[in-house]
Amino acid sequence: MFKFRYIAFALLAFLLEGCTCCAYLNHMFNAERLYDQASEMRTARQDSVPDAESSFPSSDERLKYDKVIEKGSRVLERFPKNKKRTAEAVFLIGESFRHKQEWGKAITKYDEFERYFSDHDSMPAVEYQRAYCLYKNHEFNISRFALEPVVASKDHPYYFQGLNLLSLLDEQSEFPDQAIASLEAVLADTSGTPFMRGKAHFRLAGLYYKKENWPKAREHYIAEEIKLLNPRERQTAGEQAAECLASMDQLLPAADEYKELYKNPEFENKQPDYLVRIGELTLKAGRYPDAFIILQKVNSEYPKTEHASRSYFNLGDYEQNKTLNYEQAVVYYDSSFISRTICKWAQESRERRDALKRLIALRNQNDEDRAKDSIPNVDNFFSTEFQIAELFLFKLSETDSAVARLDAIINDSKDSLRVLRATYAKAFILDEFMHDPDAAEEIYKEIIEKYPDTEYGKQAQANLGMRVTLKTKEDIAKERYMVAESLWTIASEMPVDQMDLVDSAYARAFDSFDSLYQEYPETQSGAQALYMKAVYFQMNPERLDSTAAVYRTLRDQYGQTPWGKHAAKMLNSRLTVTDEDLKRLRKRVKTSEAHIDKLSRQYYEQLNQKPEEKKAEVKSKEDEVLENTYNSMYDFE
After folding, report:
1. CA dist., res. 382 & res. 361, Å (int)
2. Is-contact 87 116, C-beta < 8 A?
3. Is the pTM of this model over 0.70?
4. How far is Cα 163 from Cα 171, in angstroms, rounded to an integer?
């Protein structure tokens, strides 16, 4: 009997164990099935978008991954001590979080996997995917550390992916040379897949392009493996390869490559852009008739578009800079603006059109002045020349033309101040716009030597990076004024019982102000010193005539300064009444008289009336009874 019970218990335990195994298989089977379904959806999504790396999973795809995480979590809850089962569950959960782009949660699961299952077959994948998630989570330094075991040996199954990720990390840390070295290592190893080599070529070409190493960039853009990439990447590679030729001044070959792209049916949506670019390159290469035919084809086939606006802009730029036919350039710029007013080409065309119209008007004005006057107005002429130079520089981007105008002012003008202004402007253009610091430095030094007491000389020292030691008359006068003002302050703070010392102190301050005004009357500090002389005279009643004389000088010669305006107020002490003031005063008096007459009539009417007899007021009995039902301050007893 005992033996039979033992056998029964053994069978029951086996059945229970079998049920537990079935539950595990059910959860893992469902989890793996859902994961495979989500992977199929992910593959379809990545095949349908140009940039698969930056696309987000759909809601259905995310729902599948959520169910995988749910099923895997149940396995961890029910079988925590079964190492094999829990390892598979943790790995699937981590992968699901990664595909959902929840990088932090994926990193946590990958760390958990390494902690408990470091000898599992999926560990190499965990090492790489954890480093990738750290990179996507912007933890670049930790990602580089996590990537070390992946790139340490070529035997690692994710070695090439690791090198590619390492190059991305080098880009983020602003070490493009290290990124280039990592990608070159990928290409140097022949065991990588052709597709992976194509991706490496594409990214390596982009890095060289940023460094403006056009030959190396083009070499990788036209690599054979580029053909294995998706259409978007092939299109970009073809465009950038042609631009590398253009940057190396091989304009016509670059135009030929754009023609091949134009003929490719895969890139049909970019045909207008390619046609405009072909016209631009042909125009720059000097093939003007061909370029005009191409650009006019753009205008006729794509009217009222940004491409037409860009085409007209190029035609206007040609007329402006090559033929100097500004009237025709204005016509083309108008057409560019009308074609597509909101695009950048239209905005630039409008600015150039307005500038050219202003330039033509100024030129015509100078021609008319020369024609009607045997001796033209020199000030107006050179003022116009300065405006033309500014238009060339700031509105038309023609630095050579601006410098030519300034040279004409420097050579023809006899006014030293005008020559100084033009010379400084020329040096500034050479330095900031034409990037010729050596030529600019010579002119700056000439300004410092010839005009040391001007603001231009001081600014020239600053532009050369020198310590500013030059002083203008304004600077010297201001220093002198500060000294005189300190003497005045000392005098004002002296005790009154020492009047002899006070008078002599004020006299010294007055002499300092007076000498300053005599030496620098054209400066602001000189005008302020003259005002202080008036204040000193005003302190002495016997010097009122001198005070008035100084105020008149301030009013007449320095009327636009604060001290000149104050002097005008002091001299104009008499009250002045305008015609408007008199009109308002008469109206007010008339209104007051009418009001007084009205009140007077009412008074006499009331005075002449007979007094009415007042009748005794009869109160009812109810009114005489007071109910003392409330609190009151009076006594009604």
Report:
1. 15
2. yes
3. no
4. 12
